[in-house]
Amino acid sequence: MFLERNCGTGRAVPGRGQPAARRQVNEFDPALAPYAEYALTGNGKHLRPTLVALVANSLGPVNESHVTVAVIIEMVHLATLVHDDIMDEAEIRRGQLTLAANWGNEIAVLFGDCLFAQALKLAASFPTPEICRAVAASTNTVCSGEILQTRHRRSFERSRREYFRVLEMKTAELFALSCEMAACLSGAGVGERLGWRSLGCRSARRIRFTTIAWMCLVRRRRRENRSAQIWPRAS
Description:
- The chain is an all-alpha fold.
- It has nine helices and two strands.
- Strands 1-2 form a two-stranded antiparallel ribbon.
- Strand 1 and strand 2 (about 95) form a beta hairpin.
- The longest helix is centred in the last third of the chain and has 41 residues, at about 190-230.
């Protein structure tokens, strides 16, 4: 799992007998365990938890609080993916059937809500309310960004400013939160935390644009291959 080892440094994080996210499966009602295990143990990139680990490791040792906040942020992200798949009518995610494709939209939307709730419950377990407030605010921002994107779906008249606003709300927010919370739990001051938060936003933009460029390249190659099959070059 993403923080099972300390950013690839070879130093094991204490208490990692079982992957951190997998342990959260046991926190749900036993009847929901199949959904929880399916959602929480998929083969994702874990970019946000990786950011938590990288920032924490640059400021000092990675500890249990960093692992917990990484799991919280990943659960919020997974909840948004579950809901995204319902709205997009997607059947495949990360090489396997989506939760909705497996168990239907009603189960999927309700379990997405459960993931949000579990993330906030875990955030509330910190001795300071600061973490829970930050997670709740970011969750609100991400959901608001999703609403704005859905409202303007297939609209090609949006300005560049509007596009970037939705990008920052829907994609960059959890990257920024990952960096900010890692710095916060490492004892960084307010100014330093804001600097890390800004780095998270910039990272999200670059990853997003790289992904878009890669998708465009793949689609172009596919079109070229289809054209070559229809109109083979003369030898």
